[in-house]
Design goal:
Strand 2 and strand 3 form a beta hairpin. Strands 5, 6, 7, 8, 9, 10, 11 and 12 form an 8-stranded antiparallel β-sheet that branches. The protein contains 5 helices and 34 strands. The protein starts with 7 loop residues before the first strand and ends with a helix. It folds into 4 domains: 55 residues, no CATH class; 101 residues, Immunoglobulin-like, CATH 2.60.40; 92 residues, Immunoglobulins (Immunoglobulin-like), CATH 2.60.40.10; 110 residues, Immunoglobulin-like (Sandwich), CATH 2.60.40.10. By secondary structure, it is mostly beta strands. The radius of gyration is 48 Å and the shape is rod-shaped. The longest helix is centred in the last third of the chain and has 33 residues.
Length: 420
């Protein structure tokens, strides 16, 4: 007969008559009070006083061979997902059958054998649900949610066996991707697998990875708050900042995920006012986004959200005298420049915007030099110093005209004489 367990009571019936003096355990009166109640017909359960002596002396129990477990592993060599649902295959002997046996995945605790604590530790959350095709030599069960290392425990109607080696849930990992946020910060969702869940005790810690120093919990990383997480994603609240080339990772219990690339968005230049600037010198107003939320210091470094940042505006590749105003506005004082089209860029913490075209032109009364293309004042006719100078010039001009007339008459007379 198939089955499992130990100390199983049995009774033989021949021709409709039970064997004697075998007694069932429920027939035994456990105390003198129970025996009196049974004798007087006041007992609420069936008991037979005559069994008190015979029960201890007559053997009426038997036991199946205890289960043995040779191997317990995830099907197809895959890792058990912390979300649950992975198939676990158990191989051994006397493992019972569906409806008789129970499999639990208990947290690893090397201080005490798993079978000694299975009754107190198991619950619906630890049960590995056995499939109906279970046999005495092979059981396949569906794993529950879990994390870390667990011990596989098989209970066959009171007979317990545990696997010699723990079963490992898959370690946490993040999707290999690049993540970006505006410089004002905000919500950042990291996607991955086997990240655990709060009700399993998972408490992710954010690590900012510095290639020179490895994983550290710098002040900037401690400012990142885990707002929500489950097995496949973590929602972070990231403070404002600037710059790129950073890495983020998660530490969950004793496991650390792979690092993913993170950067604050580079600056964006949307408009320049005026669009036609004075090539002899002008102040440009730059409008855009991701200029940083705090003013960088004059040396190019800053404190707070713009720590170690630089803020540079370039016109034709040459820096101008820039002034940060807000995350969306800045100014640039342009000195004397050559006329024509010029590309303007803005750089914040090493990240440069796309170029935006600006036109430099000479103001009224100026023109660009043919060789230098720099604006120069237009030359005007000389102005005489006084009216006396004008009169003198007029007199000289009149004398010259009289002399020219006299010379012309002389030439005319000479021509007439020659003709005669």
């Amino acid at each position: 007969m198939e089955g499992g367990g130990k100390d199983l009571q049995w009774r033989a019936w021949i021709g409709g008559q039970p064997s004697a003096p075998t007694c069932w355990e429920s027939d035994v009166c456990a105390s003198s009070a129970a025996r009196r109640a049974c004798r007087d017909g006041e007992a609420s359960c069936a008991c037979r006083p005559e069994c008190d002596a015979s029960f201890a002396g007559v053997s009426s129990t038997t036991s199946y061979a205890p289960p043995s477990l040779r191997e317990a592993a995830v099907v197809d060599g895959e890792e058990a997902s912390t979300r649950g649902g992975s198939l676990v295959e158990l191989a051994g002997a006397n493992l019972g059958t569906f409806g008789v046996s129970r499999v639990d995945l208990l947290p690893l605790d090397r201080r005490s054998p798993a079978c000694d604590r299975v009754a107190a530790s198991r619950s619906a959350a630890t049960e590995c649900t056995i499939r109906a095709d279970a046999t005495h030599e092979r059981i396949v069960c569906t794993a529950p949610e879990g994390m870390g290392a667990v011990v596989v425990v098989v209970d066959v109607n009171g007979q317990c066996v545990s696997a010699s080696a723990p079963l490992e849930y898959a370690p946490p990992r993040l999707r290999d991707d690049s993540y970006t946020l505006p410089t004002v910060g905000g919500a950042l969702n990291l996607y991955g697998a086997n990240l655990g869940a709060p009700h399993l005790g998972a408490r992710p810690q954010v690590l900012r990875l510095d290639p020179a120093a490895g994983a550290t919990t710098s002040s900037s990383a401690r400012d990142i708050v885990v707002a929500h997480h489950d097995h496949i994603f973590v929602e972070l609240r990231v403070p404002p900042g600037v710059g790129g080339g950073m890495g983020l990772a998660l530490r969950i219990d004793d496991a650390t995920t792979n690092a993913v690339a993170f950067a604050y968005a580079p600056p964006v230049l949307d408009a320049i006012v005026p669009a036609i600037a004075d090539a002899t010198g002008d102040v440009l107003t730059l409008a855009g986004a991701n200029f940083g939320i705090e003013e960088p210091s004059a040396s190019g470094s800053a404190t707070g959200a713009n720590a170690s940042s630089s803020f540079v505006v370039r016109v034709r590749g040459a820096p101008c005298e820039a002034a940060w105003i807000s995350d969306r506005k800045a100014t640039c004082a342009v000195g004397r420049r050559q006329v024509g089209s010029a590309n303007v860029t803005i750089e914040v913490a090493g990240q440069r915007s796309a170029a935006l075209a600006l036109r430099l032109a000479c103001p009224d009364g100026h023109e660009a030099g043919e060789t230098t293309q720099l604006c120069e004042p237009i030359a005007e006719p000389a102005v005489l110093a006084s009216s006396g100078d004008a009169l003198a010039v007029g007199c000289v001009a009149g004398v010259l005209l009289l002399l020219a007339a006299a010379y012309a008459r002389r030439l005319q007379r000479q021509k007439g004489a020659c003709a005669a």
